[in-house]
Amino acid sequence: MSLGKEGIAQRIAKEVKDGYYVNLGIGIPTLVANFVRDDIEVEFQSENGILGMGPFPFEGEEDPDLINAGKQTITALPGASFFDSAMSFGMIRGKHVHLTILGAMEVAENGDIANWKIPGKMVKGMGGAMDLVASADNIIVAMMHTNKAGKSKLLKRCSLPLTGVGCVTKIVTNLAVLEVTQDGFKLLERAPGVSVDEIEQATEGKLIVENDVPEMKL
Fold first, then answer.
1. Active site residue: 47, 106, 109, 204, which one?
2. Positive or negative: CA dihedral 123, 128, 130, 136
3. According to the model, what pLDDT value does residue 124 have?
4. Residue 161's CB: how many other CB atoms inside 10 A?
5. What pLDDT shows up at residue 126?
């Protein structure tokens, strides 16, 4: 049994520590805010200019002026602050963000990430991703392990235009938790009911398997 998008976000939420400043990318990463433990204090930052994002609003309680970088309506926690993009990217480039959580179309075994462009398709630009991957020391990718055609998205080398080089530290997919090492993808955990063989078959890049691999605990 593989995880859904919310399961991926729930597992990544366990990586968020007390006192962290965290940037959430578009897609699955935005769900992480809904699963962070209540007994820790975390500040979620969005590059369009907010520090202190809360969970998504309930239907009917949306404020159209309060959005994240993906243009989704959000809530603001007590004490949240708002500022311009220059201040926001100063936080990012100054390495004041402890954890960056991004989606991806491809990740290579050396930690390269491609998450902004598919050649031939209209795109507005790379956005804040280029600053995040260049400045962050701790990048976790949230993604499905394979594409809709069943082909691996964890590759020896990315085929799509790169966003960043050698920057990803950890990946959480619907099948597994993997650490990016100098030798390839190290398998840390497997999704409930998913076998190591299934993960190996779904991973094109080099997969390192040591001893018994535990199941994820959500």
1. 47
2. negative
3. 74
4. 15
5. 79
**Closest by Cα among 124, 49, 54, 127 to 90:** 49
Query: pLDDT tens, 109-140?
Result: 999 999 998 888 877 777 788 899 999 999 99
Condensed to tens digits (0 to 9), the pLDDT of residues 145-165 reads: 999 999 999 999 999 999 999
What average pLDDT does the structure give for the chain?
Answer: 94
**Phi, psi (deg, nearest 5) at residue 35:** -120, 5
Residue from 178, 212, 218 nearest 195 by CA: 212
- Which residues, listed in sequence order, are joined to residue 23 by a DSSP beta bridge? 45, 100
CA distance 164 to 88: 20
Known active-site residue 47: yes
Q: Position of tokens 């959480």? A: 172
In the chain, which residue ranges form alpha helices assigned H by DSSP?
Answer: 5-13, 85-93, 129-135, 196-201
The SS3 of residue 7 is: helix
Each residue's pLDDT tens digit, 91-113: 999 999 999 999 999 999 999 99
> At which residue do the structure tokens 């535990």 appear?
214
pLDDT at 173: 98
* Three-point CA angle 93, 109, 149, nearest 5°: 105
